[in-house]
Amino acid sequence: MGYVVLHLDKSPDNEVPMTAHIARTKMPPNAMPELTYLNEELGEFPEGVADRTEAINHRLEHAGLTRKIGTNQVRVIRVMLTGTQEDMLRIVQEGRLKAWCTDNLAWLRKTFGAENVVSAVLHMDEATPHIHAAVVPIVTGERRKVRKEKTDETGKRKYRTKSTARPRLCADDVMSRIKLKRVPRHLCRSNGQIRTAKRYRRLERPTRYNTGILPQRHCPTAEFAGQYRRTTPH
Fold first, then answer.
1. CA 26, CA 126: separation in Å to the nearest integer?
2. Who has greater pLDDT, 89 or 226?
C-alpha cells in the first residue's frame, strides 16, 4: 500500500543554497544530469523576478507588513510533496503526472493562499518524482495568543486592539497542529496513507527496533545499554 509524503520545514535562513539546489545551478550527487531538462517550474514569477529567492523577497516586500522582520523569524516554509517510488513511477507511466502536479499546486494555493505560494518546481531527475514548493507564511486574522488571552479572567488592563485585517508574518499560524490535521488524504492520488516523519522512519527503515532486536518499550539507560551490548555483534 502506497503513502503520501508531505514534508514541511520552517526556514529562517538564507535561501540562496536551497534555490541553487532546486534550480540545479548546483547539481546534487543524487541527481541525474541527463534528466534535468525534464524539471519544470509549475508557476510563474512576478515581472522582474528571476528565481525562487527573489520571489520570496518580492512577496515579503509587497505583502504590506508593518512590523520589521526579525533575524530569527521564519520567512519561508519549504514544502516537499511526493509519494512512494512505485506509485509515482506508475503515475508517470500512466500519463497522469500533469494532473498530479495540477492537483497538488491547487491544494497548495487553496491551503496557504495563492500569493503565498511563490514557487513550485517539479523534479524529474531523481529516483522519485517530487515537487519542491516555497510558501511565505503571510496571514491575517487574530493572533492565537490574543484568542487565548480572551479566555483568561477579566479585570486586567485593556489596550487598544490592532486590526485583524493587517497582514503579518507568522509560520506558527500556518503550521498549527489543528491545520496540519486537516491535510486531505488524496493529495498524491495514491492509496491515501499519511504518516508522520517519526512513524515513516519506524516503518520504512530497518533498525534494531522494527527488526525485533531490541524492545520498543521505554527502559532505564543502564538497562538499555546492557541490552544493546548483549545484542550487538562484536
1. 14
2. 89
